[in-house]
Amino acid sequence: MSDIDRTAFIATLNRILPPHAALSSTEDLHPYECDALSIYRALPLAVCLPETIDQVREILRACHQAKVPVVARGAGTGLSGGALPLTDGVVLSLAKFMRVLEIDPLNRTARVQPGVRNLAISQAVAPYGLYYAPDPSSQIACTIGGNVAENSGGVHCLKYGLTVHNVLGLKVLTIDGELLEIGGGALDSSGYDLLALMTGSEGLLGLIVEVTVKLLPKPELAQVVLAAFDDVGKAGKAVGDIIAAGIIPAGLEMMDGLTLRAVEDFIHAGYPMNAAAILLCELDGVAEEVSEQIVRVSEILKQAGAIEIRASRDEQERVKLWAGRKAAFPAMGRISPDYYCMDGTIPRKHLPAVLQRIGELSAEYKLPVANVFHAGDGNLHPLILYDANTPGELQRTEEFGVKILELCLEKGGTITGEHGVGIEKLGQMCTQFSATELSQFHAVKHAFDPLALLNPGKAVPTLKRCAEFGAMHVHGGKIAFPELERF
Amino acid sequence: MATPLSNIAPHTADRDISTTLQSKILACIDSHTPLQIVGGNSKSFYGRAAQGEHLSVTEHCGIVSYEPTELVITARAGTRLSDIEKVLAERGQMLAFEPPHFSNTATLDTASQSTLGGAIATGLSGPSRPYLGSARDFVLGAKVLTGKGEILKFGGQVMKNVAGFDVARLMTGSLGTLGILLEISLKVLPRHEAEQTLIFERNTQDAILQINKWAGQALPLSGTIGDGQKLYVRLSGSAAAVREGVKKMGGDLLNDDATFWASMREQRAAFFQDDTPLWRFSLPAACAPLDLKGEWLIEWGGAQRWLKTSADSKDIREHAARMGGHATLFRGGDRQGEIFHPLSSALAALHQKLKTAFDPHGILNPGRMFVD
Predict the structure, then answer these.
(1) What value does the mean pLDDT take over residues B63-70?
(2) Does the distance separating the beta carbons of A416 and B303 come in below 8 Å?
(3) Which pLDDT score is estimated for A487?
(4) What is the per-residue pLDDT for A329?
(5) Cβ-proximal residues to A74 (8 Å cutoff; 6+ apart), any chain
(6) Does residue B225 have a pLDDT over 60?
(7) CB of A150 within 8 Å of any CB in chain B?
(8) Would you call A153 and B300 a contact, using CB atoms and an 8 Å cutoff?
(9) How many CB pairs under 8 A join A and B?
């Protein structure tokens, strides 16, 4: 875009929005230069902070007309660079759409604006004994619009599903400003399942401007069993044993020794410091059911070789045990200058082997790895600890990360369980999908967004990029996305 | 990775005819021959009248892999639903969305002709749907033969997977208009330890209110039916949870409840034995009874309602839309007309574009869902 076009376009945005809601000066743009994957940064042309659907529509129409790409942004907590700005594009923040529009306790639904925080939904509906089930670790900050765009998971999706299982309706603006009503208060809608297609589409198909979520009654009781193991492999196997026994825990999480010690120093959750790994297994339901299941799970864990097993005695203790798990990422920030969070899923039975292989790779790359993850779903989150100030470490970290994702694929899994592809895993998309499959994804995008203006270049790689990625792979040692500034 | 078929399902056939099907599609693209995709032919009544040359997928069958500890089964689309259910039951597991078979030849508890592909292509779910999830909720991945003659894989065999658009779920319920399902991976669940059905005297209005109040409490609901006089509530889960639920809710116990729920799911109950057009309403669960003449049956806590009526379809759809839902002419009536609730013009245009994205030559089940 030429300087003249740029000035004219910014003037258009300023006509649509009040002065404080259209940002274009360098210092105003800086806070938006990255999401939670901060190794990728770029300054956009402008940042828009609309407050009404009409404003969003006008911005989209202006972008459509001027062929300016649009990157939607919620709280910016995404871990795959999905909200990374495009230098010639607009960041459209939905942060000001913060209202809970309607709570319908009898139908157990809530209609909310996209900028409402995940946890705020559960807090708003708590007086009715209801809650919104998906609970990503970032739930105090992340927004429901972002959750839908990424199909976010969380600790409790083993039993209660992902975002796609807990959303009933969306209002979506297309790039040409058309409002689509997808689903609503009923359990299904006429025609294709666009709700499923939109969920996890990473801002490539439309702008989410309203979400209707399903609410669940709070279980009568929830208790957590903590089991400590002297071997990571044993803990991994115990996970499969619990599922094999026909028990679906509300959550089943694993932390390795490195993680739990870092967390314990930080949060003092009461984790056993000497363990090689711990499992946290939450069971919920009516009191009698929970106590029966605790007995069964404890027996399974004992058989699997747990060296210590204990159950939370009250709600306070349960919350404390989870607090440690939810603080695992920040705790890592205390023991390492930087960490890189991976997100692959594998069939549960491969947990012991994959954890062992990650350990070997860690030694090979001379980079420590902390494992803290949704073991029940087989959703791994290896955190590679590195120091960006040490020359070459980031590059080594990324190479190591790629190896982990390839390992997940080799074991019949996927390169992303819940964090999304964003800008980060474009290369691995070329491994997971064939050229015809990727072309089909592009055809789907084209049906919604023929000019490819919505978050272009994210989530689905172009075939050209795959070819380049292949070449890069052969030569090795080249930094991915050299056009992007690194910090 | 796949467990050999002989180890898990000696009673199911195992044939992969995907390349034959692919050649057929490529030939039909050349000759501009539209196709109607046929599985067990048990749900041919559903949707708009099929047209085009028959393409049977029943020969493409067999369980590709089943790993009980992974809670995942992968099978070819032509695999009989009853075979899958049998194999799962042997390992204490189930398809939690209770897909209706709607088989013409089946009695309730013997093998039917219905296939997995048909169940997923129609996307229909049984009584447990509001409580345990729908067909699409349990779909983890699919291998699809598109109208371009390409065999593509979407999703996978793991619980959490956000790589690429969720095409596997988009396929669910698309009535074969976007692609021929070749292989489907489903999440399965352990069977319930206990099950009990309670009966209450309730008219429709009271029944709707009552079930929705219960649904807001931590009770192990797994099925609800109201026929205007009686409200049937099924509880499933651990023995303790069901026992507690029965204690809390009261009501009379129904004997032989498995037969009752199967007859409802399969639409073999007396209510469904009728030639009057049968409408399916999908509505916000708690909305008040609709002012439409005819005989009603309430399911899914009020979220799915059946109406036998000869009333005007325009009137029916206005009522459904006003309540925030939609209405489908499920059985009978004019099968050449609008079966599914008409879409807004923006959504209709998008549907057409998506159809073109998967089936640019318009050869797959043309007009089965909407008028192309």
Answers:
(1) 95
(2) no
(3) 37
(4) 85
(5) A83, A93, A94, A95, A114, A115, A142, A143, A144, A145, A146, A147, A149
(6) yes
(7) yes
(8) no
(9) 264
Shortest Cα distance, chain B CAs vs residue A426, angstroms? 10
Indicate yes or no: CB of A447 within 8 angstroms of CB of B133.
no
Task: Tell me what pLDDT residue B105 has.
Answer: 53
- What SS3 string covers chain A? CCHHHHHHHHHHHHHHCCHHHEECCHHHHHHHCCCCCCCCECCCCEEECCCCHHHHHHHHHHHHHHCCCEEEECCCCCCCCCCCCCCCCEEEECCCCCCEEEEECCCCEEEECCCCEHHHHHHHHHHHCEECCCCCCCCCCCEHHHHHHHCCCCCCHHHHCCHHHCEEEEEEECCCCCEEEEECCCCCCCCCCHHHHHCCCCCCCCEEEEEEEECEECCCEEEEEEEEECCHHHHHHHHHHHHHCCCCCCEEEEEEHHHHHHHHHHHCCCCCCCCCEEEEEEEEECHHHHHHHHHHHHHHHHHCCCCEEEECCCHHHHHHHHHHHHCHHHHHHHHCCEEEECCEECCHHHHHHHHHHHHHHHHHHCCCEEEEEEHHHCEECEEEEECCCCCCHHHHHHHHHHHHHHHHHHCCCECCCCCCCCCCCHHHHHHHCCHHHHHHHHHHHHHHCCCCCECCCCCCCCHHHHHHHHHHHHHCCCCCCCCCECC
Q: Of B70, B146, B218, which is closest to A348 when you measure between CB atoms?
A: B70
pLDDT at B207: 98
Inter-chain contact B158–A346, Cβ cutoff 8 Å? Answer: yes
Residues A191, B123: C-beta atoms closer than 8 Å:
no
Residue A395: CB atoms within 10 A of its CB come to: 15
* CB-CB neighbors (< 8 A) of B70 in chain A: 243, 347-349
- Chain B residue at shortest CA distance from A289: B240
| Amino acid B6: pLDDT | 43
The Cα of A417 is separated from the nearest Cα of chain B by a number of Å equal to 4
Residue type, B96: A
Distance CA A211, CA A172 (A): 9
> Residues in chain A with pLDDT < 50?
472-487
Q: Residue B95: which of B60, B125, B54, B61 has the closest Cα?
A: B125
pTM given for the model = 0.95
Q: What is the pLDDT, as a whole number, of residue A326?
A: 84
